[in-house]
UniProtKB/TrEMBL annotation:
Highest rank taxon of the organism: Bacteria
Pathway(s) per entry: Cell wall biogenesis; cell wall polysaccharide biosynthesis
Endoplasmic reticulum is among the record's keywords: no
Keywords noted in UniProt: Glycosyltransferase, Transferase
Protein name per Swiss-Prot or TrEMBL: Glycosyltransferase
InterPro entries the record matches: Glyco_trans_2-like, Nucleotide-diphossugar_trans
Record domain Glycosyltransferase 2-like: where: 30-131
Similarity comment: family membership: Belongs to the glycosyltransferase 2 family.
Length: 302
């Protein structure tokens, strides 16, 4: 077993697996939060340990069976999730955003079944559907060739709003990259699952609900998108691949936004910030991992 590789078959089979659930919220969407938590509490054939993390908020009015963890300030999305994971226990951990929910009462048991049938899996992201019937953004399908939304496949990034991991895999990855604050922490987590000797999986036969919202609504979206692309490369890739990864994304953004010079200017300001500022801890993935990812369909250069 190479350093950082998680033993397969590490999770014991239980009739009622124990699932740690982390829901992160700033308290601004109480109805959505309750809907999501109630969808978790309705899960069958699992034992639950559920915490709602208040990111700069003291959670109140939670359903019975949900504990509260209040953070005195908004520490960012990935750090908030990590804080929640430290106070729950389970064979598996499920991260659910406060505006997401799971419509099936067997969602968690079905996800765990995927891990039990295929111990090479280290993370599962479901298919995401807007419950109102609005068009589902293709960005929710985290692969280059989108194909049919219900088609399952290995992936190399994830939509972070609803993901399930074996707890030992989550611990081996080091958790979410707290330094990012917002954006691209799901790519790093997916890469580190691959580097732990497992595969990240998009499960088209599992469904989570989430409203179709434009991520660019966040004022810092374009800057953090660019800064974190560079940090992602610096934190995870061998030196020779870092400029290739950043350069390929720079070309993609120019092709997308050449009609929006202000947007591009902000993005390139973020790129400069990414190269000039502290990116936090570095864990360079191995060349064996890069080879596995390449054979599976996507080398980490785009």
């Amino acid at each position: 077993m190479t350093p950082g590789t998680v033993r397969r078959h590490a999770v014991p089979h239980r009739e009622r697996p124990r699932v740690a659930v982390v829901s992160l919220s700033q308290g601004t969407r109480p109805d959505d939060l309750r809907r999501g938590l109630e969808s978790v509490l309705a899960q069958r054939d699992v034992e639950l340990d559920v915490v709602c993390v208040g990111n700069g908020w003291d959670p109140t009015g939670l359903p019975e069976g949900v504990r509260a963890l209040a953070l005195s300030e908004n520490v960012g999305i990935p750090a908030g999730r990590n804080a929640g994971a430290e106070v729950v226990d389970g064979d598996y951990v499920f991260f659910l955003d406060d505006d997401a929910s799971v419509p099936s009462e067997t969602f968690l048991r079905d996800a765990i079944g995927l891990f039990e049938r295929d111990p090479s899996l280290g993370l599962v992201q479901p298919r995401v559907v807007d419950p109102t019937g609005a068009a589902n953004p293709t960005r929710w399908i985290p692969r280059i060739r989108k194909g049919e939304p219900d088609h399952s496949s290995p992936v190399f990034s994830v939509w972070e709003g609803a993901v399930v991991l074996p707890m030992d895999v989550y611990r081996a990855t080091g958790g979410w990259g707290a330094e990012y604050f917002y954006a691209h922490e799901g790519i790093e987590l997916a890469w580190r699952v691959w580097d732990a000797g497992r595969r990240t999986w998009y499960a088209g036969d599992l469904v989570a609900h989430h409203p179709a919202i434009d991520p660019a609504r966040h004022a810092e979206y374009y800057r953090l998108n660019a800064r974190n692309r560079v940090w992602l490369a610096r934190r995870n890739l061998p030196v020779v691949l870092r400029p290739l990864y950043v350069g390929s994304w720079a070309a993609i953004q120019v092709a997308r936004w050449w009609r929006h010079p202000r947007r591009l200017a902000t993005w390139f300001d973020g790129v400069r910030e990414g190269w000039s500022t502290d990116c936090g801890p570095v864990h360079v993935m191995g060349w064996l991992t890069i080879g596995r990812m390449t054979l599976a369909g996507r080398p980490p250069v785009v």
